Request: fold
Amino acid sequence: MRHVSVKAGAMVIGLGTLALAGYAAAQYQLAKMTPAEIVTERQRVMKLNGASWADAQAKLKAGNAEAVAVNAETMAFLAREIPMLFPEGSTTADSKAKPEIWQKWPEFESAAKNFQMQAEKLRDAAKTKDLAATEAVAKDFGRQACGTCHTPFRVPPPRT
Amino acid sequence: MTAGAAGRSCRGRFIRRGAIALVAVAVGVFSASFAGAASPTPEEIARGKYIFGATGGCGCHTKPKDPVNSGGRRYDLPFGTVYSSNITPDKETGIGGWTDDQILTAIRLGRRPNGERLTPVHPYLEFNGMTEEDARAVIAFLRTLPAVKRAPPANQLKVPLFGSVFLPAWLATFATYEKPRASAPTSGIERGEYLVRVLGHCSECHTPRTMTMASDNTRFLAGTAKGPENAEIPNITPDKDTGLTWTVEQIADFLGTGNKPDGDVVGGLMGEVIEGTAAGYKDLTQADRLAIAQYLKSVPAIKNKIGK
Reply:
């Protein structure tokens, strides 16, 4: 009986994973998208990350730690989508993605995972409403959450 | 006590005091010279680490994720491929067997102990302006890092007689050296100038090059579409349309955190020099980062649009 329930549990987890993967694929319909469309999509995601981080910094400067949680949660959520937004060969002249992404895929995936974890850390600090603690995480967030991926894997875009 | 006895006693005390003073001076001189030659103070080493950070952590000498300063990083140049040197204190493959003066000559004048010239990928055109005090502090710091036994691959230069004829001629004809400085400015725009022009060697990437590959100093810091690693390097002169329009505070913040005002975070080589190795731009004091920003605001604005 126990054996059956474990099996059923595994099936549920398996189906759940499939459903999640299906959700992601359906959301982006990557197979149907051209490289140009994929690049546009991921630049949108990254712009949203950038806007969230800029907003978080402004809120911290204003002394409002708690309000940073939603920005951090946005980044943590978007971080999970990063690897699937980089299918192999999805480059165009507009893309700043370096070929190293696909040459060192496990490193790229772990950089995205690191971003997610750092964003969650920022979110959890913000939820405590402790300004000093949130600022302590935010102080190195740019370099340690974003820079650790941008440095090896992104051609620096010209400053605008 | 007679007058004579009192006089002898005074003389005796005077002689004794004199002798003690002489011994004290001698001990002082001896210990000072000994300390100067053999063991830098922790303050000097910390100062050396700070200067090391102000150069971007001498990052060209470290391949990402490899031991700091172990060299072997590849640079493809128009005249061939070169690899950075191992500058760890290893005696065989690093600089452990060099004297302080030999390292000083390599850092500032670009010459090895055997007289060979270094490829000017090592920024000796800029480091020529580094004060001796700062350079010696860096050397003291370099000697504290772990020794790594690893020789870099041999350089592959396409130009015949590169080291003996081509490079000396190129340096004599086209190179502009930073003027030597006796002492480092400690504050203000002058401090910023020293940090930008000498220690930070910003010009190496941010100033476009002429056909001869020399820095085009008429377009100082005006950016280039063909920078190192084929990256577009931004114009950081204060030109209002094509240059750096961030505030002084935003520039200082960027150098410490990598954060840009629009929420983006820098990567690439700029990300590397901010992060540094054992230290980087991020470890500069706020006063020094502000001084850099103030200096950048003071250089001539040059219109040069990079990128779309």
About this structure: Residues 2-28 of chain A form the longest helix (27 residues). Residues 34-153 of chain A form a domain with the Four Helix Bundle (Hemerythrin (Met), subunit A) fold (CATH 1.20.120.10).
